[in-house]
């Protein structure tokens, strides 16, 4: 039997960007207050990795950085439990829900043996930003009003007048007709 670090091989390590809504409220749904903004979207990176087998594997720690060369910080407070010694493939995952959706992140997974020895288990993997930098962060959405020019042919009343189906535009409509407010 081999001793030391887990001899597991990486079958897959993937990062999946997820957009999920906040969990539903346990109370009965109530209509939102007029001054209450809509719930912000929640963004996260999910790391998945599998092993073909494991030997003396205590667990894994996940590290993250904002640059490929680091510095990396450990995200797992406690190691993700490993399977010890096993010849059956195992699947693991970690959810990083503390991200800025406009920023790229770099991750790697570190293996910890039963004796406490540590070794980098995966290569450094890049997670792409979920939003472009120009998009405001969740919860602070900005709206921009852009002028919109209405073309007379888009106006239903103008169409009906041209077809002879309507003689005049009622004042109550207050619609634009050939660029003039009627």
CATH architecture of the largest domain: Sandwich
What are the secondary-structure elements, in order, as H or E?
Answer: EEEEEEEEEHEE
Question: How many runs of DSSP E, i.e. beta strands?
Answer: 11
CATH class of the largest domain: Mainly Beta
The end-to-end span amounts to 90 Å
Task: Extract low-pLDDT stretches.
Answer: 1-23, 34-38, 143-154, 171-182
Specify the biggest β-sheet.
6 strands, antiparallel
Helix content: under 10%
**Global outline:** elongated
What would you call the structural class?
A: mainly beta
The portion of residues forming beta strands comes to: 35-45%
- CATH topology annotation of the largest domain: Immunoglobulin-like
Q: CATH homologous superfamily name of the largest domain?
A: Immunoglobulins
Count the DSSP helices: 1
Mean pLDDT: 72
Please give a structural write-up.
The protein is mostly beta strands and 182 residues long. The protein folds into two domains: 10-21 and 35-127, Immunoglobulin-like (Sandwich); 152-181, no CATH class. Mean pLDDT is 72; it is low at 1-23, 34-38, 143-154 and 171-182. Strands 3, 4, 5, 7, 8 and 9 form a six-stranded antiparallel beta sheet that branches. The protein has a three-stranded antiparallel beta sheet with strand order 1-2-6, with no helix packed on it. The protein contains one helix and eleven strands, in the order βββββββββαββ. The longest helix is centred in the C-terminal third of the chain and has 7 residues, at 156-162. A hairpin with a 2-residue loop joins strand 10 and strand 11 (180-181).
